Amino acid sequence: MKALFIHDHPFIKNRETGALYTSGNLDSKLWERYLKHFSSVTVIGRCKVEDDTSRYNLAEKDSVTFNLFDNVRGGADYFRKRKEIEKRLIDEIQKHDAVIMRFPATISVFAADYCIKNNVPYVAEVVGCSWDANWNYGGISPKLIAPYSYIKMKKAVKKASAAIFVTENFLQNRYPTDATLTANASNVIVQEVDPKALEVRLKKINSQEADGAIRLGVIGNINVRYKGYDVLLQAVSDLPADLLKRITIDFVGGGDPSYLTSLIQKFRLEDRTIVRGKLKSGQEIFSYLDSLDLYVHPSKQEGLPRVVIEAMSRACPILASSVAGTPELLASEFLHKPGDAKKLSMDIVKIVQDVELQKRMAEMNYEKSKSYVFSVLEGRREDFFAKVKASL
């Protein structure tokens, strides 16, 4: 049996070699979850060309074929080129036994429209909220399209024959489904929790000097406005002067830095920030997280934030917005409403001044992360896709 995977994800083609890479988690390892059940996978997505792909992960894998749009940049392109997109989607859907769509994604919505009209069963993988993604993206155009995209995604998920969600409750409540087969499993990729991570973290906390440097960190595409960088920078700029001079914010992520740089200049925090660029998933990210005193995730849009779970697995104290599924991960006292810089600023003050609280956060986060290790979640996914295959 052959499977078709559909999403908007922009894969990166190396200009010289033609090899395909990804800045996200749709890498060569991920396709294994489908190849356990299907003989081959065809991937429909988007493609852009870059000269330097050294910081990305390889997306290619044996038995995986890519059919990518290299002329669809997003936004209005989806609608200007809808007929071309639909033609390719229909051709591929008709050639495959199983159709898997990841949402939110406009290309997936187009595919769902066709499948609903023609009674073609499909699997919905729900990893985020279309409304949140558009409303918080920045600019007028995404806000205008938010109601449309929300309604279309809601219909697509409702009519799916099978659906798997990355949250336990949030996305299920916002996007209810009539699917007879459902499951939940985060997209997090933490192979196993390091048994020494908590011990190392507690030693780090105990070794802090009362008036020493404090390193805050955040990970995400630095060109994406809904990541809440403005909220974090506002919160830090509002800190008492004696605390502010001890703070460094260390930003990690790919993308054009001009938006983030403009925010840093706006809040006059040039000497309190580091824009590091992209780090490779795995050990590079874990080493970075280990170096932080506090991880902050002020995002205005999420499904279930993978990087928060990764930080939890390193026993990192964490502050985050209460968006989407994040309250399933962290206690409410460590959450702020999306956009609430005042609460985030107060939380930073409280935590950096309380060593015992940092230890409690480290222990809670570390223990909670064990529920999200790859082996646990992959077991759920394997059972789900085995049932999907049996139903075809």
TrEMBL record:
Taken from the record, one Pfam family name reads: Glycos_transf_1
Its signal peptide is none
Domain of life of the organism in this record? Bacteria
User: What molecular function terms (GO) are annotated for this protein?
Assistant: glycosyltransferase activity
Coiled-coil residues? none
Q: Which InterPro entries match?
A: Glyco_trans_1
The UniProt record lists the Glycosyl transferase family domain at: 218-366
Q: What is this protein called?
A: Glycosyl transferase family 1 domain-containing protein
**From which source organism is this entry?**
Sphingobacterium hungaricum
Organismal lineage: Bacteria, Pseudomonadati, Bacteroidota, Sphingobacteriia, Sphingobacteriales
